[in-house]
Design goal:
Keywords: Membrane, Transmembrane, Transmembrane helix. It is a single chain. This protein has 173 residues and is α+β, with helices and mostly antiparallel strands. The protein has two domains: 35 residues; 122 residues, Macroglobulin (MG2) domain (Immunoglobulin-like). It is 16% helix and 39% strand. It contains one helix and ten strands. Strands 1-10-9-5-6 form a five-stranded mixed sheet, with no helix packed on it. A hairpin with a 5-residue loop joins strand 2 and strand 3. The N and C termini lie far apart (87 Å).
Amino acid sequence: MPYADDDNARSPFLNLLIIVTLVTMVVAVGYLAHYYLRGGSNDVVWYPPDGICRLHQGPCHAGLGGDVRVTLSLGSAVVPLHPLPLDVHVDGLSPERVVVAFIGRNRNMGLRRYVLQDRGDGDFHGEGVLSVNSVDDESVTRWRAEVIVTTPEGRRGSWFDFDVRRPGAGNGA
């Protein structure tokens, strides 16, 4: 005759599943607590650009909170596959470091990140190169330039969208 306690016994496999579920829940709660207490996975505070920006026509500007302003210029002409001067001016604080990153907007063009050299008085300079989409018939590659300013208080940034026309595909960008 079976004992009454045999009906309530769990299989070893069920016990294992319960332990795995509990461990997974503890790890998930720990990850979420770390994520939210640290302020997210990306520690850059992003600010939108000032109005419409046309980097191929001239510098673009953005406020980075308070009296802090950043200006990005790519020189007089944005020509793909040629050296591109990167000039950033920061007003209102003294950054430790300034980085310009280029990211393709309409397709994965890779991440191009350039650390600029400090020239003093808030001026930073560097040189970069942009590629073009040569896989299909699109004559324009859409880019986003992200300017990230690092200070002892944290990182601030803004972005500027622009288009680059493939050489021989028409005028301007």
